[in-house]
Amino acid sequence: MTARKIVFSGIQPTGDFHLGNYIGAVKRWVADQALHDNIFCIVDLHAITLYQDPNVLRAKIRQAAGVLLACGIDPQKSLLFVQSQVSAHPELTWLLNCVTPIGWLERMTQYKDKAAKQESVSTGLLDYPVLMASDILLYQTDYVPVGEDQKQHIELTRDIAQRFNNLYGETFALPEGIFPKVGARIMGLDDPTVKMSKSIATDQKHHAVGLLDSPDQVWSVLKRATTDSGKEIVFSDAPSKAGVNNLLTIYQALTDQTQIEIEKHFEGKLYGALKREVADVIIETLAPIQTRYNELMQDARALDAILQSSAEQAAARAAPTLRKAKEHMGFV
Ligand code: ATP
Ligand code: LTN
């Protein structure tokens, strides 16, 4: 029997989780849970690379745990822990910082985008991908299921691991990114030229659908979704069809139908009908998640117990790799 593959992924407790997070990442984590040895992390140390109000952050960390469990992360099959509770993550980050050329970090597109929006850029924002590499490398991870926006960070993680292994001897496994076939990059509903993102959703009401949004809220965003002046309901790479393509992609990811079936289903229909049907499948997907979330949040102690037990197990699993890295570097 071959050993089960180790899966690691993370999500930031910044703002409310949206449909892009669900389709691009969480749906896959849940679906593949039985196949692998899974470690999921609420990456609060990443969240603080941009200022977070402490009271809001505290609430969002618990909310994140509740939403992930409600989506189907099963503590019997997966670890679900909070990054700041396992000190091996920042500790390995320091070691990896010392083998990572600054130029590698300055080239990261997420850094350039986020830095461009800040008056003053923290060292943490630049260092963000090294912390992410530590998350992944600490567990000898095989697979990292994420949305397409993280591709560059996964490649950097491999580069850092390889450089460390070359300098100090074999220490880290090289991880592989896993991207969904459908919905690896869900676009903003108000503006299909930008990725749906938590940070934009905080300021712009009609940008995203949150996983805890009510049916009325879902419809209010969907009915305003940007389309185009044509009337063809088809999958298309053409920039002018980006809005319709995004709605169809959401529909496809949530119904698991083929593109041909979906185009046939919408043949001859108007954009208003497309929006209504996409809203309906979203509402149907979210209803059981929200029911479960409300139940889970009744019992804060049980939730904290899951996080604590997972953090203890994660710390135990991270320790041997951290020790090996330190030994290889010459620490006594
Ligand atoms: P922020 O705006 O705060 O950077 P975010 O919305 O990009 O947040 P993250 O916590 O950075 O969310 O990402 C969590 C997971 O969701 C990652 O695997 C990421 O690739 C995926 N993801 C985020 N946005 C999308 C999207 N629009 N489409 C598909 N996957 C996405
Ligand atoms: N940078 C990721 C979040 C993240 C992550 C990780 C994802 C932090 N550490 C490790 C996968 C593996 C993002 O989604 N923005």
Structure write-up:
The relative contact order is 0.15. The protein has 2 domains: 6-180 and 300-329, HUPs (Rossmann fold), CATH 3.40.50; 198-294, Tyrosyl-Transfer RNA Synthetase, CATH 1.10.240.10. It has helices at residues 19-31, 44-47, 54-71, 88-97, 102-106, 109-116, 123-137, 151-168, 198-203, 215-223, 242-255, 259-266, 271-296, 300-329, and strands spanning 6-11, 37-42, 78-82, 143-145, 176-178. The protein is globular, with a radius of gyration of 21 Å. It has 14 helices and 5 strands. It has a 3-stranded parallel beta sheet. Strands 4-5 form a two-stranded parallel sheet. The model has no long low-confidence stretch (mean pLDDT 97). The protein is mostly helical. Bound molecules: adenosine-5'-triphosphate and L-tryptophanamide.
Radius of gyration, in angstroms, nearest whole number: 21 Å
Number of helices: 14
Our measurement of the CA-to-CA distance between the termini, rounded to an integer number of angstroms, reads 38 Å
Please provide the count of β strands: 5
Widest sheet: strand ordering = 1-2-3
Largest sheet: 3 strands, parallel
CATH class of the largest domain: Alpha Beta
- What fold name stands as the CATH topology of the largest domain? Rossmann fold
Q: How many discrete domains?
A: 2
Unreliable stretches: none
Average of per-residue pLDDT values: 97
Second CATH tier, the architecture of the largest domain: 3-Layer(aba) Sandwich
Please tell me what the overall shape is.
Answer: globular
Distinct ligands: adenosine-5'-triphosphate, L-tryptophanamide
The percentage of residues in β strands lies in 5-15%
Series of H and E elements: EHEHHEHHHHEHEHHHHHH
Class of secondary structure makeup: mainly alpha
Helix content: 55-70%
